[in-house]
Amino acid sequence: MGSESDIERILWTEEEISGRVGELAAEISADFREVSPPVVVVGVATGAFLFLADIVRKMTFPVSVDFVRVESYGSGTESSGRPRISCDLKIDVKGKHVILVEDIVDTGNTLSCLISHLEGKGACSVSVCSFLDKPARRKVHFELVGEGKFYRGFECPDYFVVGYGMDYAELYRNLPYVGVLKPEMYE
Ligand code: IMP
Q1: CATH number, span 14-160
Q2: Backbone angles phi, psi at 149, to 5 degrees
Q3: Contact of 63 with 55, CB cutoff 8 Å
Q4: 119 lines ligand 1 (CB under 6 A)
């Protein structure tokens, strides 16, 4: 378990991901080029680590980078519905623009919890940049803060996906593509 042979189908290849990340970074860079005060890119650990590393290297404006850790999934494929921030930011975001970088928005619980958290810390805007978005499974509506915008890489069909940072039972995060596991891997 944990290898490429466990994958039933690839949804996005490494090349497709790289192309889309470049487009997103260009769009965000155009939107934030003239922005002041500073911009803090906040990655949601662990799932966003590869996406964040790739996208910040293509952003053409000054950014600070920090991470938060949120626990909402156990080792299964269903959200617990009650996210908990288990490791908070180091950077003070008061009066700053925040771009929250997520691997995937599913029910919206994690995002809604994090947006309120950042708003409570005094961020002047909160944008969200999610690599994948699964709108079919949305349960919680979230409002961005200030002039914040929502950016997404791809709309994801209603499958549990792994790779490019995303895991099942803490495995498969290092796959360079996004795929669906063979059904027997969930047993
Ligand atoms: P939400 O709170 O239900 O929106 O879930 C958000 C978090 O659940 C994401 O940041 C992921 O870590 C995890 N998650 C949701 N769907 C998937 C998936 O298909 N594969 C892997 N992780 C997922």
Answers
A1: 3.40.50.2020
A2: -120, 160
A3: no
A4: no
